[in-house]
Amino acid sequence: MRRIVMLVATLGALSSSAAYAQESGVSGELEQSATTSPREKTEFADGALAEIEGAVRTVEGLLKDAEAAKEKNAEQIECLVRKLTPMKSLSEVSRQSSNTMKQYLAANDTVHADQEFRKVAVALTKSREFLAEAQACVGDSGVQRGDSSATVTDGGDNYVNDADVPAIDEVPASPWGTER
Questions:
Q1: What is the C-alpha separation between 63 and 105, in angstroms, rounded?
Q2: Strand 152-153 to strand 159-160: parallel, antiparallel, or no bridges (unpaired)?
Q3: Ramachandran angles phi, psi of 136, nearest 5°
Q4: What residues contact residue 95 under an 8 Å CB cut-off, 6+ apart?
Q5: Does the global pTM surpass 0.70?
Q6: Burial class (CB in 10 A: 0-12, 13-18, 19+), 155
Q7: 33 neighbors 117 (Cβ within 8 angstroms)
Q8: Which of 32, 4, 55, 58 is nearest to 121 (CA)?
């Protein structure tokens, strides 16, 4: 029953893809769907599915590591579970949308194929967001402190040393209000 509720919630989120796409920068990919060939749509969907499933496996690994740690962090585990659950639903919905899109393409129904294509594109973007948030749950943003340097000018000849720039200890909260 819980799986059905999650699928319905995920489908509801995907159905509002136009509004989400405008906020998240996906609109460029979605606008291109009208000029994308059926073969390109299929390749995109296959690649998106592989990426989404890879993201799910990554978060499952993070969760497994967190649960196996000597000093278990319940907050960290709960954070990862909150990200993994919708990611699994996105994977399932994306697989269904991809298969449906391929059926519509075979029947030359481009209108419905484009709708399914957009669902996959939005799911990919959302799964990337969940992956980043899951990595933030464990403090793994992919960048280690001190790995980068910057040279900043104030418009004149005054340069700011990167040592003077404060480090960011946390990933900023999502502008869409999703929890970490």
A1: 38
A2: antiparallel
A3: -70, -30
A4: 49
A5: no
A6: exposed
A7: yes
A8: 32
Q: How far apart are CA 125 and CA 15, in angstroms?
A: 14
The radius of gyration computed from the CA coordinates of the chain, to the nearest angstrom, equals: 20
- The average pLDDT across 84-112 equals 96
Q: State the CB neighbour count (10 A cutoff) for residue 180.
A: 14
Rounded CA gap, 20 and 30, in Å? 11
Residue 147: is its pLDDT beyond 50? no
pLDDT digit string, tens, across residues 130-144: 999 999 999 865 444
End-to-end Cα spacing for the chain:
25
Residues 24, 14: Cα–Cα separation, whole Å:
13
Instruction: Please give the DSSP secondary-structure letter assigned to residue 165.
Output: S
DSSP string over 110-128: HHHHHHHHHHHHHHHHHHH
Two tokens, residue 123 = 């799911």
Both structure tokens of 45: 């969907």
- Report the amino acid identity of residue 54: G
Q: What's the CA gap between 24 and 127, in Å, rounded?
A: 12
CA dist., res. 108 & res. 137, Å (int): 44
Cα gap 140→144, rounded to integer Å: 8
**What are the structure tokens assigned to 114, written together?**
């484009």
Euclidean distance between CA atoms 103 and 32, whole angstroms: 20
